[in-house]
Amino acid sequence: MSRLVEGFVNSWRSHLLATLSGNDEGRPAWVGTMELGDDAGFFGPGSAAWAVHGGLATMVAGIRALLMQTLHPGAMAGVHDWSRYREDPLGRLGGTIQWLLTVTFAATEQAERESSRVGRFHDRVVGSYVDAQGVERPYSAGDPELLSWVHVVFTDAFLASHTLWGGPIPGGADRYVREWATAGELVGVQDPPRSDAELTAQLKAFSDAGVLMGGDRVAEAVRFIRHPPLRRGMLPFYRIMFAGAVASIPVEYRRMLGLRRSPLPVIWATGAVLGLVRLLLGGSSTSEQAARARIARLAVP
Fold first, then answer.
1. What's the 3-state SS for 169-197?
2. Where are the alpha helices (DSSP H) in 22-143?
3. Mean pLDDT of 127-152
4. 188-211, pLDDT tens digit by residue?
5. Alpha carbon 7 to its chain's center
6. What is the pTM assigned to this prediction?
7. Which residue, of 18, 32, 118, 174, has the fewest CB within 10 Å?
8. What are the percentages of helix, strand and coil residues in the chain, rounded to 5?
9. Where are the beta strands (DSSP E) in 126-266?
10. Residue 261 has what DSSP assignment?
11. Torsion angle defined by CA atoms of residues 72, 266, 20 and 180, in that order, rounded to the nearest 10 degrees
12. How much is the mean pLDDT over the chain?
C-alpha cells in the first residue's frame, strides 16, 4: 500500500508541477534567469508582495481573478476575440504566471522587460464590444479603464485569497496594495489604488457606474473556468478550489456571474487542498529560491 500511495503522490505532484510551470520539475527556463541581475528587484525579502505571491493561495486567487475579469464587457471582449484560452488554456495561464512571478521576484531590469512584453501584446488587442447600456464601443487592451479593471480585480483577488488561506502579510493589506501598484504602473495603469480602502473604492466605482454585466460571453467563460481541460486526477482538487474561489466572491458579483455559493464547507476544504499541495511541493517556490540565490550572490564582496 505504501508503494501505491507513494506512486500516486509522485504522479500527482508531477501533474501539478507540469500544470503550474510547464514541466514536471516545476522550474521553467525563465525561472533560472531570475538568478541573474544586479539588484533585489522592486520588492525583495520581507515584502508584502513576496509573502502573497509566494503562497499557495495564489492558486485560488487566479481562479477568482479570472472570474471577476469577465464581468467587464470590454475585458471579456478582449479575451473572447484574442485569447488562446480555448486552444491553449495552460499556455495562457503560464504566461500570466510568468509575468506575476517575474515582476515579484526578478531583478528590476528583468521585471521591466517582462512588463514591456505584456504591453506589446496589449497593443495588438483591439476591437469593439456592446456595453451594459447596449451601446457599441471600441476597445483596446491598453485603454485606461480596462487596465484599471484588470489590475483592481487582480489585486483584490490575491489579497482576499491570501487573507482567507495564507499567513500574515508584512505591513498588512495596505502595504500589499501599495507595493502591487508598482506592477500596475509597469503595464500602464493610471492611478492604481495604494491602500485597501482605495482598492475597495475603485472596485465599487465600477459597480456604481453600471459598467459590469453578465451575459452569454460571461456564461461561456465561466463554464470554461469551471471545467478546464485538466488531467482527471487533478479535477476533484480543482473543483474544490473553484468552489472556494466562488465562495470568496461577494454575492453581488456572484449573481452577475450566475454562480451560487456551495452549502458545503468549501472555505475549509480549499484550505485542506492547499495544505495537501504544500505537503506535495514542499518549501518555497522556485522563483523565490532563484531570487534569494541572486540576492545572496550580490551580498558576496
1. CCCHHHHHHHHHHHHHHHCCCCCCCCCHH
2. 29-32, 48-53, 58-69, 73-82, 89-105, 108-124
3. 85
4. 999 999 999 999 999 999 999 999
5. 30
6. 0.88
7. 32
8. 70, 5, 30
9. 126-130, 136-140
10. -
11. 50
12. 84
**What CA–CA distance (Å, rounded) separates 166 from 196?**
17
Q: Are 300 and 82 in contact (CB under 8 A)?
A: no
- Give the Cα separation of 44 and 107 in Å (integer): 9
| Cα 13 from Cα 84, distance rounded (Å) | 26
Which of left, alpha, beta for 16 (phi over 0: left; psi -120 to 50: alpha)? alpha
Cell matching residue 301: 564582496
Of the pLDDT bands very low, low, confident and very high (cuts 50, 70, 90), residue 1 is very low
Instruction: Give me the pLDDT at residue 85, please.
Output: 57
Name the residue with cell 492558486: 59
DSSP letter for 128, please. Answer: E
Sequence spans of domains, the chain: 34-229+285-296
Q: When comparing pLDDT for 44 and 29, which is higher?
A: 44
Residue 264 is given by DSSP the state S
Q: Is the dihedral of CA 228, 211, 252, 184 positive or negative?
A: positive
pLDDT tens-digit series, residues 162-173: 999 999 999 999
Cβ 264 vs Cβ 221: under 8 Å: no
In sequence order, the β-bridge partners of residue 129 are 137
Give me the count of residues in the chain. Answer: 301
170: region left, alpha or beta (phi > 0 left; psi from -120 to 50 alpha): beta
| Per-residue burial over 108-120, b = 16 or more CB atoms within 10 Å of its CB, e = otherwise | eebbeebbeebee
Residue pair 219/255 in contact by the 8 Å Cβ criterion? no
- State how beta strands 126-130 and 136-140 pair: antiparallel
